[in-house]
Amino acid sequence: MSAVRVHRVVEGPEDGPVVVFGGSLGSDVRMWEPQVVPLLERGFRVIRYDTRGHGASPVPPGPYEIEDLGADVLALLDDLEVERAHLVGLSLGAMTGMWLGTHAPDRVASLVLCCTSAKLGPPRMWADRARTVRAEGTGAVAEAGVSRWLTPAYAERHPDRAAFLRSMIAGVPAEGYAACCGAIERMDQLDALPKITAPTLVIAGAEDPATPPEGHADLIAAGIPGARLEVVADAAHLGSYERPEEFTRLILDHLERA
């Protein structure tokens, strides 16, 4: 397990409760922009980071495993001298959060797991996608990515935002994206879920084609003791971006309870 120094954006009061946001495969820190101001207004210290291989973070050679991504977050907390933090993740960021909840419980104040899975197959799909990206670049998967991230109705109403998200995916380094595909391909955290003791909120998008509530969010919520499940209507995989008011309300409610 080897950590890299990931790119981070830190905002808010130094003495505020710390919330760390981890993003989806194919995203960078900009995906969380709708959540920043509401949390700052409540006094939280907001830390967003780019997953290794994404955005402005380093792109070490693969393979990557989920424990590598978790080690990166622990190194981030150490860098910033943060003893414990609330972790909010979506998709790959939430997979990383689950790993931290299991392997570094003393560093986790609470978890919010959005639009994610503890085991996301089939493995061949991830291997095929990684092969495509290494051969053709991330632009080759950008359109399909946005079709999972947004409902068709939202993309039609907001073509500028859909184009912005396509460019976000296309801007991810090919090796970083592909190596993260490998981490998801080999990940299986189902049996570890009962070990998570942090207060946990699971949020799903009702129209998420990548990690539908049935078979993903419901299994996570059932596996983590005391976890609560919320399903947001009219949201696909990037629900925090498509339905920001509802996701932010749920996140804030959970953080303030925790």
Tell me what the structure shows.
This protein is α/β, with parallel strands linked by helices. It has a single domain (8-119, 188-257), classed as 3-Layer(aba) Sandwich (Rossmann fold). The protein is 47% helix and 15% strand. The chain has 11 helices and 7 strands. It has helices at 33-41, 66-79, 92-103, 123-136, 139-149, 152-157, 159-170, 174-186, 213-223, 239-242, 244-257; strands at residues 8-11, 18-22, 45-49, 85-90, 108-114, 200-205, 228-232. A 7-stranded mixed beta sheet has the order 1-3-2-4-5-6-7, sandwiched between helices. The longest helix has 14 residues, at 66-79. The chain starts with 7 loop residues before the first strand and ends with a helix. The model has no long low-confidence stretch (mean pLDDT 98). Residues 17-244 form the AB hydrolase-1 domain. It comes from Amycolatopsis pretoriensis.
Topology of helices and strands:
Elements: E1 8-11, E2 18-22, H1 33-41, E3 45-49, H2 66-79, E4 85-90, H3 92-103, E5 108-114, H4 123-136, H5 139-149, H6 152-157, H7 159-170, H8 174-186, E6 200-205, H9 213-223, E7 228-232, H10 239-242, H11 244-257
Parallel strand pairs: 2-3, 2-4, 4-5, 5-6, 6-7
Antiparallel strand pairs: 1-3
Number of helices: 11
In total, the number of domains comes to: 1
Strand proportion: 5-15%
Indicate the mean pLDDT: 98
The proportion of residues forming helix, as a percent range, comes to 40-55%
Domain AB hydrolase-1: 17-244
Protein name: 3-oxoadipate enol-lactonase
InterPro entries: AB_hydrolase_1 (IPR000073), AB_hydrolase_fold (IPR029058), AB_hydrolase_sf (IPR050266), PcaD/CatD (IPR026968)
GO biological process, one term: beta-ketoadipate pathway
